[in-house]
């Protein structure tokens, strides 16, 4: 299996909108990504979604989507999100994250749901808290520090 890595780091100025890719982002303990609309959301400081799930959705719906279309902060590649339970710890460069939730309730006005009629974040989105802050960039490797088979939802 190929090494898991960051494909894209994404931010938005407003909630409910797709995120745009940025060359790097600063993750802050207790906040999330500095400058992102979702920063400070308890239990959901940072969101991750794997490129393979996005590709599957694109094929099923017949659409092409850019990283950040599901409002995920970190688009990953090669990270099997189905293995990640609440409590799993990940390292991305100097940053350490702890999975705090799998999935979420989709809010009214979800841009992708309005455009395509469905959203995979409620089923497949991984949300994490920042344990150790730092900067991350596309291409950074992702390492599972400790695997938890804990609940798949918090």
Model description:
The protein contains 3 helices and 11 strands; from the N terminus they run βββββαβββααβββ. It is an alpha+beta fold. It has a single domain (5-146), classed as M1 Pyruvate Kinase, Domain 3, CATH 2.40.33. The longest helix has 11 residues, at 51-61. The protein is globular. The termini are far apart.
Mean pLDDT: 87
Helix content: 10-25%
CA-based shape: globular
Please describe the biggest sheet, giving its number of strands, its sense, and whether it closes into a barrel. 8 strands, mixed
Helix vs. strand class: alpha+beta
Order of helices and strands: EEEEEHEEEHHEEE
CATH architecture: Beta Barrel
User: At the third CATH level, what is the topology name?
Assistant: M1 Pyruvate Kinase, Domain 3
* Measured distance between first and last alpha carbons: 29 Å
Unreliable stretches, pLDDT < 50, 5 or more residues? none
Using DSSP, what is the number of strands? 11
Instruction: Give the percentage of residues in beta strands.
Output: 25-35%
Report the C-alpha radius of gyration, rounded: 14 Å
- What is the fourth-level CATH superfamily? PK beta-barrel domain-like
Q: Return the domain count.
A: 1
CATH C-level name: Mainly Beta
Record the strand order, biggest sheet: 2-1-6-5-9-8-7-11
Number of helices: 3
Question: Features of this protein?
Answer:
154 residues, alpha+beta, M1 Pyruvate Kinase, Domain 3, three-stranded antiparallel sheet, 3 helices, 11 strands, 34% strand
Describe, in short, the structure shown.
The chain has 154 residues and is an alpha+beta fold. The protein has helices spanning 51-61, 111-116, 121-124, and strands spanning 5-11, 20-22, 25-28, 32-33, 46-50, 74-77, 89-92, 95-102, 126-132, 134-136, 142-146.
